[in-house]
């Protein structure tokens, strides 16, 4: 792709993605068991009290997971890195589940998001240490290794969740745990928007601000260091940022996988790997992706409602399989 073509394509993609986001947002507000005309959106209680907070949460979660995935793929030098696949989402979820089951409330409404953040931080640290130990040449662990690490971590954390749910004192807590495991946006309220909007918006701004560091990491560790980047410090900051975005998303939506894998890849195919354009475009397309998936979940088999995470998995899993097979073929990997 020529440099001129890239300059022309990038604004077209971003503007087109913004238009798609607005259209999907409005259509999602209108659609449901009760169809609300466009002229009544601002005055309908169904929209203002039920659909609007749910759709805003969908947009925030999609943007957070997409940008987090893009960051992790660059830091790990791994095209298959994703918060859900490498176990970071599960780490956030298990900490949130433990907070629910134990009835912890040391930070009030921020207790569960804080617990999810700590869980995500610990998990991403473990993944980073394993990836570093497996690739001392600075290229990152191979995709197959990272996927297997993620499977192992997810299995272990699943055992922790099973033990926690087996000892949950109330049935209501079991229902909450089920929500965390499957990913859904049912009963999202303005309180959930209030808890998540600041951490996610701040995290997205910081991520875009770190675009130069991410671009340097793409060039390799030695080149980045020669350019004046403190690679170790940059990696820690960027992974903490990815953990913050993932944890906040998980805190209000449960575990939704594949968004951080699929969306950055689609953006890279069209406009390349420059994070100055990649991250904003990924945030917009990620928001649109989850909004559309949530709308499909509500409408496909109405009145039966699918979980949002299930619809995302239906779309993302075949793409993940294609990417895994493509990477294996290109690098000659074996599982």
From TrEMBL:
It comes from the Bacteria. CDD domains: TM_ABC_iron-siderophores_like. The keyword Repeat does not apply. It holds the Pfam family FecCD. Keywords: Cell membrane, Membrane, Transmembrane, Transmembrane helix, Transport. InterPro entries: ABC_BtuC-like, ABC_transptr_permease_BtuC. It is found in: Cell membrane. It is a multi-pass membrane protein. One of its GO terms (cellular component) is plasma membrane. SUPFAM superfamilies: ABC transporter involved in vitamin B12 uptake, BtuC (SSF81345). The keyword Flavoprotein does not apply. GO terms for molecular function: transmembrane transporter activity. PANTHER family: ABC TRANSPORTER PERMEASE PROTEIN MJ0876-RELATED, FERRIC ENTEROBACTIN TRANSPORT SYSTEM PERMEASE PROTEIN. Belongs to the binding-protein-dependent transport system permease family. FecCD subfamily. This is Putative ferrichrome ABC transporter permease protein. It comes from Corynebacterium efficiens (strain DSM 44549 / YS-314 / AJ 12310 / JCM 11189 / NBRC 100395). The lineage of its organism: Bacteria, Bacillati, Actinomycetota, Actinomycetes, Mycobacteriales.
